[in-house]
Design the sequence.
């Protein structure tokens, strides 16, 4: 017998018993609709909260509040982490402050590097700035009366020889972020401009524009300490004044060897800190304090180890520091060192600190130095230390310094999704970086979802058990009532396998009808909820929502409930002998 005949007979049977079938469908729908509503409210509420969190790029950002040293290779490694989305290196905040200058005034801003895929700009559908282009916040644009397409100058200053020098770069506004973005006095520019501003501030670049430059210029010198010939000056100075003027907290008297070799003044005390350096301008207050008390003040830097090529061999040596008075108006020092052997005089390319940098210097003979000794004024050593710290190398091709393995102080990192924020923070912490994100807000949503899952599971279990029991008993009762009918069909040639299809088909039809009725009622109620709470939700949000995957899952669960109930009724049919059923009736 064909399945089509079975379906036709089942249809005729349900038409004949339509009232009982309708009552069963309504009863099952009444049990399923509350389950669908709870699931829809859970999915809609959690999804809305996640959408609102994910819509704000600040919730996807993994921040590095403490500056560190991150190489270009480490930046690539971080961007390749699982769950990492947009990643771009950034420099120290203090080194990237600048002024936007217009005819109507100027405003100090912080430069933020950006690039393709920046979620903050994508959130507001703004273009990515290129060379000479910027994106700024609405508050800054209002203060400077700027609009999209407006022109201004980006200005950065630096201290040089006791005077402030400025460099400017013309820029054009290509986008303005709204107040809701929370950017404040931040300006988004290409990474190359952020690097140029930092290099100019540190004295490694002559201007903000790289046009016409062949390599970086030697950076401004840094100092790790100072000599003071009147140690009692510290005791007669209030601590807060001394600490502000002299940032070097460790101290020791000059040794006899240093005095004999003219590396330290007679009777001087060294105030130093090899882990922290200062520029000459930062020591202005210390110079004034010494001058007021008629004390002698001179600069100091720790020795630098260097390697030079000599007759196809390499020779290692140490460059000692010669004390040098502070001159706030002095020009940039010439990279000239002194040697005790006349044969060592000449121009050399030195590899510094075991390969952390290299530089071209001129060596001149100094007869006051013993043979084999090397020395340089504190300002020259300060330049060498700055080259080592920044990882600069001499380039013969460019005729200047380059930075092939540039290091950064942090990265701008955004996770791909909310669930990736916490794993990214953990991975960065494991690597030794201090990272943080909006983990607390994301966890609140996850915990709410978990609690609602428990509530839904309990209520769904009760409702589904009731629906399954109702369907099973109804089919079982129907099979008992139709024992005589099944017996007659069996005598007419219907096989037992065909007869078992009757309760199965009936069960599936009733279940699918109940689920369809439940979906219809659910969507009507969901629309009503959306209308009632329209003022509380934004476009694209739903408080009661079921995804297509949820619909298929519910449908599969319904069929999974109907089949066991149908099998119970089918077993009753199979166990009934036709002769027994006819005789009993």
Sequence:
């Amino acid at each position: 017998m064909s399945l089509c005949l079975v379906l036709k007979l089942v249809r005729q049977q349900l038409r004949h018993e339509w009232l009982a079938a309708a009552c069963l469908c309504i009863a099952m729908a009444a049990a399923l609709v509350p389950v669908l509503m709870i699931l829809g409210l859970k999915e809609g509420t959690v999804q809305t909260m996640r959408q609102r969190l994910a819509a704000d790029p600040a919730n996807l950002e993994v921040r590095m509040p403490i500056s560190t040293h991150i190489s270009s290779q480490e930046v690539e490694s971080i961007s390749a982490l699982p769950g990492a989305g947009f990643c771009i290196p950034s420099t120290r905040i203090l080194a990237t402050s600048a002024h936007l200058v217009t005819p109507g005034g100027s405003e100090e801003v912080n430069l933020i590097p950006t690039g393709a895929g920046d979620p903050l700009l994508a959130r507001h559908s703004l273009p990515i700035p290129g060379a000479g282009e910027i994106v700024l916040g609405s508050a800054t644009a209002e203060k400077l009366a700027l609009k999209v397409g407006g022109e201004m100058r980006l200005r950065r200053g630096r201290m040089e020889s006791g005077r402030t020098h400025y460099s400017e770069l013309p820029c054009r506004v290509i986008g303005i972020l709204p107040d809701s973005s929370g950017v404040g006095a931040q300006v988004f520019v290409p990474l190359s401009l952020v690097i140029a501003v930092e290099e100019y501030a540190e004295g490694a670049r002559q201007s903000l524009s790289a046009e016409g430059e062949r390599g970086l210029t030697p950076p401004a010198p840094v100092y790790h300490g100072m000599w003071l010939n009147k140690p009692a000056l510290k005791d007669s100075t209030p601590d807060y004044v001394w600490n502000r003027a002299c940032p070097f907290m460790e101290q020791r008297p000059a040794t006899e060897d240093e005095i004999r070799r003219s590396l330290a003044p007679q009777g001087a005390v060294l105030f130093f800190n090899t882990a922290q350096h200062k520029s000459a301008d930062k020591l202005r207050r210390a110079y004034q304090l010494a001058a007021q008390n008629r004390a002698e003040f001179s600069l100091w830097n720790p020795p630098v180890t260097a390697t030079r090529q000599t007759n196809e061999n390499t020779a290692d040596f140490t460059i000692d520091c010669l004390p040098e008075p502070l001159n706030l108006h002095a020009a940039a020092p010439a990279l000239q060192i002194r040697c005790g052997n006349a044969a060592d005089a000449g121009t050399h390319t030195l590899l510094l600190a075991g390969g952390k940098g290299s530089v071209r210097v001129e060596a001149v003979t100094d007869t006051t130095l013993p043979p084999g000794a090397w020395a340089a004024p504190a300002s020259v050593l300060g330049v060498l230390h700055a080259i080592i710290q920044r990882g600069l190398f001499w380039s013969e091709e460019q005729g200047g310094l380059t930075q092939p393995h540039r290091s950064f102080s942090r990265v701008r990192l955004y996770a791909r999704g909310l669930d990736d924020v916490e794993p990214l923070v953990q991975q960065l912490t494991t690597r030794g970086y201090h990272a943080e994100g909006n983990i607390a807000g994301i966890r609140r949503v996850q915990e709410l979802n978990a609690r609602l899952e428990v509530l839904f599971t309990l209520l769904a279990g009760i409702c589904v058990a009731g629906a399954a029991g109702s369907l099973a008993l109804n089919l079982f009762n129907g099979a008992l009532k139709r024992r005589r009918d099944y017996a007659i069909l069996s005598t007419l040639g219907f096989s037992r396998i065909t007869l078992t299809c009757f309760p199965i088909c009936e069960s599936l039809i009733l279940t699918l009808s109940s689920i369809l009725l439940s979906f219809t009622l659910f969507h009507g109620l969901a629309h009503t909820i959306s209308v009632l709470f329209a003022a509380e939700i934004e476009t694209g949000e739903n408080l009661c929502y079921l995804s297509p995957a949820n619909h298929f899952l519910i449908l599969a669960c319904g069929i999974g409930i109907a089949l066991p109930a149908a099998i119970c009724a089918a077993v009753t049919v199979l166990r009934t002998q036709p002769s027994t059923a006819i005789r009993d009736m």
In short: The mean pLDDT is 80. The longest strand covers residues 163-177. Residues 422 and 440 are 10 Å apart (CA to CA).
